[in-house]
Amino acid sequence: MVRHCTIRSVDQVARNTYLLSFEDADLCRVVRAGQFLEIKVTQCTDILWRRPFSIHDTHPQKNTVDILFHAVGPATRTLAQLTAHAELNILGPLGNYFRYEQNVREAIVVAGGLGIAPFMLMMRELQERGIAMRLFYGTGRSDQFCRLEEFEKYAALHLSTVDGSRGYQGVVTDMLSDYLDQSAHHHDSSLYVCGPTAMLRAVKEIANRFNMAAQVSVETIMACGFGACVGCAVPMTTPIPGQKYFMACKDGPVFDIREITIDD
Asked: pLDDT value at position 175?
């Protein structure tokens, strides 16, 4: 469904990272954590394809929806420069969403860089279910962390930076592995993951080693949102007759990590 929405605000929340809030009374009441939107940046006349954005949060009391993004190309740099009352052309909500098993005692959320985007809404959903949370959040440097005060309302924070400017020095998956090595309760925990490919590959190895369930939201190009352009193919771990790939936009973007092969 195409929606024509009005921007409420656009704010820079970290280095090159922006939080855009727009109005849609219906959308903010039906979306689930993990779903995404396709936005056509009509202000960029030379860009034909829509751009996918994870739904970061919703505010039903304000009738607003938030997306979180890096300003890295013409489309996202244009979005970052928009102001209140500008119009957005949005398709969504699209895709599936995170599932929560009833026997999960603790959710361990693992985010790398902009992989933090889908997790604010997810943490609200987990809090409503009374599930404890830990957030393992890694970036390259400390000024790339965003919205830590908000995330701290829901989860115990474990932060890492590659340059050592804040928290654990190194990649977030090494910090996660060290924590699980010392934890006696990880068998009652599930992993919820989003980040770059190398991080996903490392988390899959960790999940196998500790025999933990893990759901992953994949980051890939999703131009159409319906599986027609075949630009978001994700290899199946166990192909079935006539099918070797999932389409992230249609079958995902959230997968059981055991179902997919994580390639470069």
From this structure: 98
Interatomic CA distance for residues 33 and 98, integer angstroms:
6
- The pLDDT averaged over each successive group of 10 residues in the chain (264 residues) is 94 98 95 96 80 96 97 93 96 95 91 98 96 97 98 98 97 97 84 96 96 93 78 87 88 95 80
Contacts of residue 64, Cβ cutoff 8 Å, sequence gap at least 6: 8, 21, 22, 23, 24, 28, 58
Q: Which residues of 87-112 are buried (b: 16+ CB within 10 A; e: fewer)?
A: ebebbbbbbbbbebeeebebbbbbbb
- CATH numeric code, 106-219: 3.40.50.80
Sequence ranges of the chain with CATH classification 3.40.50.80: 106-219
Q: Which amino acid is at 45?
A: T
Residue 44, pLDDT score: 77
In this structure, CATH architecture of domain 2-94: Beta Barrel (2.40)
Residues near 178 by beta carbon (within 8 Å), at least 6 away in sequence: none
75, 74, 81, 29: which is closest to 55 by C-alpha? 29
Residue 213: predicted pLDDT = 94
- Element (DSSP H or E) covering residue 250: helix 248-251
Residue 102: its pLDDT value, please?
82
Reported pTM: 0.95
Note the pLDDT of residue 174.
Answer: 98
Q: Which long-range contacts (CB under 8 A, 24 or more apart) does 24-28 make?
A: 24/63, 24/64, 24/65, 24/90, 25/63, 27/3, 27/58, 27/65, 27/90, 27/92, 27/93, 28/58, 28/59, 28/60, 28/63, 28/64, 28/65
Scanning 101-229, the segments in alpha helix (DSSP H) are 119-128, 148-151, 172-182, 197-210
